[in-house]
Structure formats: structure tokens, C-alpha cells
Amino acid sequence: MSLERTEEFDRGDWLEDKELSRVERGYLLTLMWLDKRLRLVDYLELLEDAYYKTNLQMPKSHTEQYNLDNKFWYWYPLYSLGSLSIIAYVLLAISGALLGFYYSPSATSAAGADATIAYNQIVFIQTDLNFGFMLRSIHRWAAQFMVAAVFLHMIRVYFTGAYKEPRELNWILGVVLILLTLLFGYSGYVLPWNQLAFWAAQIGLEMALSVPLIGEWAAQLLFGGFSPGAPTLMRMYILHVFVLPFVVTSLIAIHVGIVWMQGIAEPH
Ligand code: HEM
Questions:
Q1: How confident is the model at residue 17, as a pLDDT?
Q2: Which residue out of 75, 157, 163 has the highest number of ligand 1 atoms within 8 Å of its CB and is therefore the one to mutate?
Q3: 240 Cβ below 6 A of ligand 1
Q4: SS3 of 76, please?
Q5: Is residue 3 over pLDDT 60?
Q6: For ligand 1, is residue 92 a contact (CB within 6 Å)?
Q7: Can you spell out the DSSP letters for 109-171?
Q8: What's the rounded Cα separation, in Å, for the pair 104 and 231?
Q9: How would DSSP label each residue in 198-244?
Q10: In CATH, what class is 76-262?
Q11: Residue 86, pLDDT above cutoff 80
Q12: Cα–Cα distance, 12 to 14 (Å, whole number)
């Protein structure tokens, strides 16, 4: 369908013939005003057209093809693991944004203090901030929960054979998503800059260094040098609050969009 607008149909005349209340008329006139400027109807038609074309190409599940009554498998509990991952992710985004008001990614110490500013901010959140302990706990527990849910979701997809044609691309996208979920967890783990965080950074750095050929380059890029320090904390912070949220949110949207187009695979 082309987006050329024909003027043969005047929506204004059409409205005059109708018996409508003032509210209905106002509502329709508003829609028409918007349509004239934003061509809503044309774009909706295009969207509908594309949607049905895509769906007609998709293989139907056995249940749909033969119109079987038994749709019980739609309700299998393990099929909820993907959605549970999304719920955990939303919870993480909200609690993380709130934690971000109080955290500071600084590995230096304030004058006269021993501990770093990053660590002190975590102590502040835990002990002084109203509901701070709860906020941090929600963020940490949701992170553990998401990693577990994503992993179990992958296992469920594997054992129900849902990765097979035509869903290979979504499986590959899933592999990227689980790796990014782990990277999310790792970069967050480093942020408190306590002993656990520091030595986790050391281990990560050495893992990066051990990669053949590009090891040194990878260590510099991800950790900002060859031993953990202020640049390491800053890089993990930027990854955790700026890069990963945009990338992972977009990939989850594409992942779920593909599920929406293809439908859920039936258990084999
Ligand atoms: C951030 C992580 C992830 C999120 C939020 C997510 C979300 C979802 C959701 C909501 C569904 C709909 C069906 C269901 O819930 O079981 C789904 C389906 C699917 N996911 Fe994921 N997923 C993630 C990671 C993964 C991983 C790690 C894999 C595999 C490596 C994967 C592969 C698939 C496949 C192949 C489907 C289609 C399954 C079917 O049609 O039955 N996903 N995903």
C-alpha cells in the first residue's frame, strides 16, 4: 500500500450525516484533526498489513493448526520464566535508578577518611538512608533472581525443543542476553568497592589478560589498566548504569517482539 492520500473521501462530510452526541463528535473531530496532520489511519493500515503478512508466514502450532481444545500447555508454570525475568529486570531498573541517587563511583577517599567514597555511600544507603537497606536488598535479590530465572528459562527452552526452526535466531539472541545478564551482575558486584568487589575485579582483570592476542587490549578497555583501581570502578559503573541498560532493554524488546510474531512453541 502506498501512502499517497486520495481526496475522494472527505471525512468531514461523512461526520455531518451522523447522529452523534457532542462528546462523540468532539472526540471524532480530534481524531480527524490528528489524522490530517499525522496520517494516523494510513500508518495504522500499513502496520496492520505488515502484521498480517508476517503472521501468515509463520508456521502455526499443532494446537492452532488443528484448532484443538487442549491448550493446557499454555499454562505450564515453566513457561512463565521468561516473563519472570522481565519482571525482575523492571524491578532492577526501578530500584537501581533510586540507588543511583545516592551512589558515587569514586575509588578515592574523602579527606581524613580511610574508606573510599563509593564504599561510604553503600554504608550510608545501608545504615542512614530511610528504606535504604530495603532498597539495596531488593536490587541485590532481584539480580540473583533474574540470573536464576534467565538460566532456567534457557533450560526450559532447550528441553521443550523451542530453539528449533524457525526460532534459532531468538535462541542466539538469548545466548547474547544471558551473557549480558551475567555482565550486568558482574559490573554491579564491583560497584560497592569492598573486599569482595576489589578481588572480583582482580579476577576479572586476570581473566581478560589471559585471552590470547587481545588480552592486554581487553584489560585496558574493560578495566582501565593492569590492576584494579579508580578507572576500573568508573568503567564498571558506566557499563552498569549507561551501556548495559540501553543494550539489554533493546534486545529484550526484540526478543519478545520475535516471540510475539512467532507465537510460543508447543512442547515437542
Ligand atoms: C534477559 C533474558 C531473557 C528474557 C527477559 C527473555 C524473555 C522471554 C519471554 C517473555 C519469552 C516468552 C516465552 C516464555 O516466557 O517462556 C521468551 C521466549 C524465548 N526465549 Fe527468552 N528471554 C531471555 C533469555 C533467553 C535465553 C538465555 C535464551 C536461550 C539461550 C532464550 C531463548 C528463547 C526462545 C528460543 C524463546 C521462544 C520459546 C518458545 O517459543 O516457546 N531467551 N523469552
A1: 73
A2: 157
A3: no
A4: coil
A5: no
A6: no
A7: BPTT-SSBHHHHHHHHHHHTSTTHHHHHHHHHHHHHHHHHHHHHHHHHHHHTTTTSTT-HHHH
A8: 13
A9: HHHHHHHHHHHHTSTTTHHHHHHHHHSSSS-SHHHHHHHHHIIIIIH
A10: mainly alpha
A11: yes
A12: 5
Tell me 194's DSSP state. S
Whole-model pTM: value is 0.79
Q: Which three cell numbers stand for residue 99?
A: 540507588
Cell of 45: 493500515
Looking at residue 5, its pLDDT comes to: 57
Pick from 56, 43, 48, 11: which is nearest to 29 by CA?
11
Least confident of 52-66, 162-176, 196-210: 52-66
**C-alpha span between 43 and 257 (Å, rounded):** 19
CA angle, 99 then 102 then 104, to 5°: 105
Cell of 237: 559503573
Can you tell me the distance from the alpha carbon of 99 to that of 263, in angstroms, rounded to the nearest whole number? Answer: 37
Set of cell numbers at residue 34: 490528528
Residue nearest to atom 42 of ligand 1 (CA): 174
CA–CA separation, 204 and 223 (whole Å): 9
Distance between CA atoms of residues 239 and 245, nearest Å: 8
Give yes or no for residue 250 CB within 6 A of ligand 1.
Answer: no
Compare 264 and 196 and report the one with higher pLDDT.
Answer: 196
